[in-house]
Design brief:
Oligomer: single chain
Strand content: under 5%
Helix content: 55-70%
Distance between the termini: 57 Å
């Protein structure tokens, strides 16, 4: 029986499972080949803990981080869509409940905002 995401312990399980799928994914896995997982995973645990439980434990700037990543290896809409699919599928496979639903909603919102911020300068301006 699935439970809800109750705190950091469940988030660590979720995030670990998610990134295992990401690393193995033929569409976006290669984009994560450079990641130092020992430093990245704790940051993601704190990010998601703050996102779902408002702990204040995350102080990074994900837009700036992804802007730098985009310069190294251009990010496309299909990359974000695949990330969304993987995240939602991991949540659905492992958890159910209010926080699980909130995690999926927040993931989609974060992905949308990230795309807007990254791609806002790439569209031609109307006269």
């Amino acid at each position: 029986m699935k439970t809800d995401i109750l705190g950091r312990k469940e988030l660590e399980i979720l995030i670990d499972a998610f990134y295992e799928r990401v690393k193995a994914d033929p569409k976006i896995g290669a984009m994560f080949a450079h990641v130092n997982w020992e430093t990245h995973l704790p940051v993601m645990y704190s990010f998601w803990e703050n996102t779902l439980f408002y702990t204040g434990g995350y102080t990074g700037n994900p837009v700036k981080t992804h802007q730098a990543l985009d310069k190294r290896s251009p990010l496309k809409e299909n990359h974000f869509k695949r990330w969304e699919q993987l995240f939602v599928s991991v949540v659905d496979d492992m958890f159910e409940g209010e926080k699980a639903e909130l995690a999926k909603q927040r993931a989609l919102s974060i992905s949308t905002v990230m795309q807007i911020k990254l791609f806002e300068n790439s569209k031609p301006k109307e006269l």
